[in-house]
Amino acid sequence: MASSAAEIIQPTSDLEALVAGSLEPMVVDIDRSGHYPEGFMRLIGEHGIYNRHTTEGGHDFAGAIDAMSEVSRVCMSTGFCVWCHDALTWYLDNAEVPETREKWLGVVGNGQQLGGTGLSNGMKNVAAIEALKIHVRPVDGGYIANGTLPWVSNLAPDHVFAAVFNNESSGHRVMALVDCAAPGFELKQCAEFVALEGSGTYACHFDEVFIPTDQVISHDAGGFLPRIRAGFVLLQMGMPLGVIEGCIEIMESMAKTHAHVNGYLDEQPEALREELNDLRVAVHALADEVPGNASDRLFRDILQVREQGSALSLRASQAAMLHAGARGYLADAPAQRKLRESYFVAIVTPAIKHIRKELARLEAA
After folding, report:
1. Which of 27, 54, 96, 329 is the most exposed place for a label (fewest CB within 10 A)?
2. Where is 185: in which H helix or E strand?
3. CA-based Rg of the chain, rounded to a whole angstrom?
């Protein structure tokens, strides 16, 4: 995923102004040229965006989600990158190995060290959807890793990410931080995507990669993942909330000239905004419950809200496209970009089908 645009950096503590001045000018290049907005990602880290949901930030999950929503309203590709980094920060805040937390949480939390989350495979493994793709064997001072993860996002050669590995010796899962600069590790370009090309997404190849103990998050991820799953999924709600808001804004802007005909369409911005507000209220209520809560009841409620976010994103983006009409077909039109982004909301782990599988399991338990 190429990087070509010059980034406009306006240092300010106001996120809305930051997004308008530093991100919005790059959106078309992010979408069409695959530009990865690294400068913007580092900038918002300097302003505390990635620390809100951590212990240091008072576990303000609602604040973290709202910040991600503001980014996603303008560019969900970048909002997805924010979620990847937020998720990584969440893992490190809960790391069971003190050396790992002490070494990495501060620099990741302030955006000095950027990184992603490679937990799609691990979460699918826990849900019995697919086998773990990376295997490790214990050695003195850590583990040696081999295998390939097909898609990991918010990466660059100097980034880090978390992943779940199969311990060949014990059969247990291990969760650890991976340094993209480590010997034997290689990032490989993925096939071109129709959306989110600027998300720094690569295939990750491990060939005898050493992972030291101070990068291990948990030696028994089977017990660790239930503790972080609620935060992992709920943080994603910043993406659909932002996409839906962006779609409503498109519909409202079209009403200035086309209300006389768009009024005949089934979906109208006023009704969608009511549903969006209800969804945000539900997300904020759940956000207060996440810290220290690994219950199946909370996870079920979060999965249900996450599914609602996917469904409403799909409806809102289709409505925005219909309200925009032919203008929405322009190559740089926000409407067609939002349509493609909404499909990603529905298929990123946990996808709608994954969510429904998990809900069925929880209801049967």
Report:
1. 329
2. strand 185-189
3. 20
Question: CA-to-CA distance for 297 and 305, rounded, in angstroms?
Answer: 13
* Cβ within 8 Å of residue 170, ≥6 positions away: none
CB burial of residue 257 (10 Å; 0-12, 13-18, 19+):
exposed
CA dihedral 130, 91, 77, 178 (to 10 degrees): -70
> Taking a C-beta distance cutoff of 8 angstroms, is the pair 158, 179 a contact?
no
**Kind and range of the H or E element at 136?**
strand 134-139
CB proximity list for 260: less than 8 A, separation 6 or greater: none
Structure tokens at 131: 């086998």
pLDDT tens-place values along the chain, 365 residues long: 444 344 444 434 589 999 999 999 999 999 999 999 999 999 999 999 999 999 999 999 999 999 999 999 999 999 999 999 999 999 999 999 999 999 999 999 999 999 999 998 988 998 888 999 999 999 999 999 999 999 899 999 999 999 999 999 888 899 999 999 999 999 998 878 877 889 999 999 999 999 999 999 999 999 999 999 999 999 999 999 999 999 999 999 999 999 999 999 999 999 999 999 999 999 999 999 999 999 999 999 999 999 999 999 999 999 999 999 999 999 999 999 999 999 999 999 999 999 999 999 999 98
Cα 125 to Cα 111: distance, rounded to the nearest angstrom: 29
Q: Which residues of 227-238 are buried (b: 16+ CB within 10 A; e: fewer)?
A: ebbbbbbbbbbb
Beta strand pairing call for 160-167 and 134-139: parallel
From CA 194, how far away is CA 33, in angstroms rounded?
A: 11
Prediction pTM value: 0.94
Walk me through the domains of the chain, giving residue ranges and CATH numbers: 15-109 (1.10.540.10), 115-220 (2.40.110.10), 224-364 (1.20.140.10)
